[in-house]
Amino acid sequence: MSGDPAQPRLHMSGIVKRFPGTLACDATELSVRPGEVHCLLGENGAGKSTLMKILAGSYQPDGGEIRLDGQPVTLTSPQAGIAAGIAVIYQELDLIPDLTVAQNLLLGHAPATGPFVRKRRRLELARAAVDRVGGEFPLTAAVRDLPIADQQLTAIAKALTGDARIIVMDEPSATLGENDLAKVFEVIRSLAAEGRSIVYISHRMDEVMEIGDRATVLRDGGTVGVYDIAETGPERLVAAMIGESRELVRPVEGAPPEGEPLLEIDSVRVPGLIDIAGIEVRPGEIVGLAGLGGAGRTTLLKTLFGVSGGAVSARLGGTPLRVRTPAAAVKAGLALVPESRKEQGLMLGLSVGRNTAVTALGRPPWLAPRRLGRRLGAPVLADLGVKCATPDQPVGELSGGNQQKVVLAKWVTRGGVRVLLLDEPTRGLDVGAKADLYRQVRRLADDGVAVLLASSELTELTANADRIWVLHEGRNVACFDPRTAAENTIAHTVITGVTP
């Protein structure tokens, strides 16, 4: 693949992207050369995903310019991105599980005569792409039946069938073993040798040092530096990611709760995902869970709540905790505010009142009288400061902050909550809504509830948690007191898994 090495294959300059209450990209810069493996680094929330979605055409920037091989382009849709030679391989692979490998590879551009797909030609093109990435799996196999490593190779091969000149790989190692990753690295090197440009996103410094040529570091939506990896140590990259000037975190008010733990997690194991042990939460205590994407925070909370299967050895109030289903977890006094409030926490077509009272009604909410939902939920909605026109308003019409309050309200309405599990409770909320939510969580803790809080926002954890456990690659590796620990020390541990 041709390309002038003196001219960037990709140049994104002054990229600005705003969301309500958030400046996700703040004049962000990214320049990638032909034949280069360019690592894109940054903490959670630094702006990496937003920048790549702009490159893919999924988001439209509010400002800035994108040039490909020196020519300005406007990418108005994912189809426009693909047509421009840009392929993004997301961590959750963009493959259709029930289709075959060949069908996935040529989906949308299969060779055809009139309305009929030329299946033999499709197999020939698919075989060439799969051979190119070293795949040895059958083209007629359904993608869901392939090992995850072969699914990853299928996603790379799919990018080649579209003749991609820029290939973005988002955390490709998250689901790969060491041998499988070595095979993917071989493919990446050969693609770069052809002149293709690879943007490699990873939090793992050992991978970055092995595969990368240069690295761009983002922090708080902006570009803080571009580094030649051969001349830069991992410690310098980590320092750029977290900021070397962070001060000691502001301590939470009051002394940490004392006494016997309410929730004692001896061990929670899900093969291949998490192996966590020794976490305790006292009544009135907020224990934070920090970690990168894929570190295991969500899996831990879902397993404790009976959503995901796993081996759990835990005690609640000294009694063995046995929860194989969410219903059993609720009966035991656990409550979960899930990461995706719209998909897992609310019934968007039903009213605010009925959503608030859903856990207390003891029947499907659409079968309960509307006035009953209003009566049960009204006091809690008022106490939590939920802003709605009327309790009969569909919950889907509320702002994100008010929707999240309704998710919390349904557990308060039911009563009997002993342990509150919060998974990214402030995602997508503005600053004011975040403050309101954390005030309500602290009030519940003050009433004796034990809170386990997972968040990608380390600043929020240090401001609101009594203790912070760091999870790294499925294990809890260190516990910090935010009253005394420096935030950059915690951030360093989040990224590397090692306390400096």
Automatic annotation (TrEMBL):
<feature type="domain" description="ABC transporter">
    <location>
        <begin position="257"/>
        <end position="498"/>
    </location>
</feature>
<keyword id="KW-0677">Repeat</keyword>
<keyword id="KW-0067">ATP-binding</keyword>
<dbReference type="InterPro" id="IPR003439">
    <property type="entry name" value="ABC_transporter-like_ATP-bd"/>
</dbReference>
<dbReference type="InterPro" id="IPR050107">
    <property type="entry name" value="ABC_carbohydrate_import_ATPase"/>
</dbReference>
<keyword id="KW-0547">Nucleotide-binding</keyword>
<dbReference type="GO" id="GO:0005524">
    <property type="term" value="F:ATP binding"/>
</dbReference>
<protein>
    <submittedName>
        <fullName>Ribose transport system ATP-binding protein</fullName>
    </submittedName>
</protein>
<keyword id="KW-0813">Transport</keyword>
<dbReference type="InterPro" id="IPR003593">
    <property type="entry name" value="AAA+_ATPase"/>
</dbReference>
<feature type="domain" description="ABC transporter">
    <location>
        <begin position="10"/>
        <end position="245"/>
    </location>
</feature>
<dbReference type="InterPro" id="IPR027417">
    <property type="entry name" value="P-loop_NTPase"/>
</dbReference>
<dbReference type="GO" id="GO:0016887">
    <property type="term" value="F:ATP hydrolysis activity"/>
</dbReference>
<dbReference type="Pfam" id="PF00005">
    <property type="entry name" value="ABC_tran"/>
</dbReference>
<dbReference type="InterPro" id="IPR017871">
    <property type="entry name" value="ABC_transporter-like_CS"/>
</dbReference>
